[in-house]
Structures are given as structure tokens and as C-alpha cells.
Amino acid sequence: MPEDLISLKLLQPEKDLTQRMDSSIVLLLTGFAIGTIGTLIGAGGGFLLVPLLIFTHPALSPEIITAISIVIVACNAVSGSIAYARSGRIDFRAGLLFAGFTIPGSILGVLATRYIPATAFNIAFGIILILLSAFLFFKKKEQDTDNGSDRKTDSALTHQTLTDSANTIYSYSYNKYIGIAVSVAVGFLSPLLGIGGGIIHVPAMVHWLNFPVYIATATSHFILAVMATVSVVVHAVKGNYSDPYIFHMILWLSIGVIAGAQLGALLSHKIKTSAIVKALAVCLGLVGLRLLIGVL
What we know:
The protein is mostly helical. It has 12 helices and 2 strands, in the order αααααααββααααα.
């Protein structure tokens, strides 16, 4: 068999997979699933979309993959934040502070995507997901609202009490300086990897800052809405959305993710916090392993 015919046969399944993924219905359903899962766990959904694009559209550069993903993250985060705001679970005081410190890093992260080789991008993304998965799965969490009297008298901490729409009272204390440092790092890494940052921000807010899980997921979503929107603007200025092919993907994914975000916010009221964290850990680990297997 001629060598060029062999090459054509090897490439054909990849081409067929790309064509199936580009179907408007498939993109719509994919966006809906990403929006539901992402909002449920307080992430933008980029940790699911980025590896999916890597597998189905290997010809796309890391810069374009992250550009597509960050739009979906922004749509998911804005839609989910509206739903979470109605539930009264967003800590706007912390959210606005942390979001402000993600902006400088997010601009730098977008600009840096152009210089990342595809293989290095995939390896880094896979390792980060596996490490975060292990941390979440094996880390034991103390009671959400148990900050202790010593914490409440610590002047270095910010104390907050929120009452949500179901009249559940959340009382907690956190170190805003640790939160700021985490936010700067998340701001840089999120657009660099196209993941939104919720998979980093949520566990950091829960385990390092002692936020209740429900408040952490809602507030993280609000932070993502601000940060991802800034990243989208920077990508747009660079012209990364000018291709009609890319615009088609973004349009249908966005419609699906906006609807899915509303369902995810609704389900978050009905699922135990431990289940949310465990589900996040399993998803991250599986995706990370698949990425590394595909590269190595």
C-alpha cells in the first residue's frame, strides 16, 4: 500500500472525530454538560473543555485552545454567578477583593500562551490536574463553620457572617493576605491553561481560608466571572476570535454552557459538600491521566 494512502487512513479517524465535535448539536450538548458540572463544583469548566479540545482538535495551538476555553469559562461563570447571587451564597466582599488581584495576572497569562509548545502545555496541564486531584481526594476537611474562638479574636483575620436565601447562616474567618496571594497566582495560571481557576480557587478557599464549601463554590464563580471576562477582552484585542470556524464553536458551546450553569447552581443546593469535592477530585485525576498517556 502506498505510503501516502497509509498516512491518509491514519489521519481519517482524527478528521471524522473533529467533524463530529463541530456539529452544532454536539457543541450545544457539550456546553450544557460543562456548564452543569463546572457550576456545581465552582469551576468554570475549562478543566473539562481544554483536554476535550486537545483530543478532538489537535491542530489547534495552545493559544487558540485557551482562547476558546476562557470564553466558555466566562459565560459559565457569569450565568452561574447570577444564580448563586439569587441564592445569597456569594461573599461579595471577599470576591471583589480577590477578583481585583487576579486581573494583572490574567493579562500576563493570556500574553504568555503564545510562547508555550503544545507538548509542554499538555504535560503541565496533566500534572497539575493529577496533583490537585490527589490533594482533594485525600485531604480531610474540618467542619465548615468551625473557626474556633481563637480565630474570631485574631486581628489578622477577616470575619464574615452570611445568611443565604434558605436562611442558613454561615460564619467563618479568613486571612485576606493568603487569599490575595492565591488570587494573583490563579490569575496568571487560569488564562495560561484556559481552565478558569476554580479548580484551584475552590480548594484553596476551603482548605486554606476556611470558607464553607457552598460559599467557596459560589464566590469562586463570581471571581471567575470577573477574571475570565478580562481574559476574553485581551484575547479579542489580539484577534484570537476572528476566525469564523472558532466563532462557530464558541457560539454553540456558550449557549449550552449558559443553560447548564443554571442547572448546576440548582443542583448545588441538593448535593452534599463532600460529594462535590470528591467528584471534582475524580474528574481531575481521570482527565490528567488521559492527557499524560496521550503525550508520553
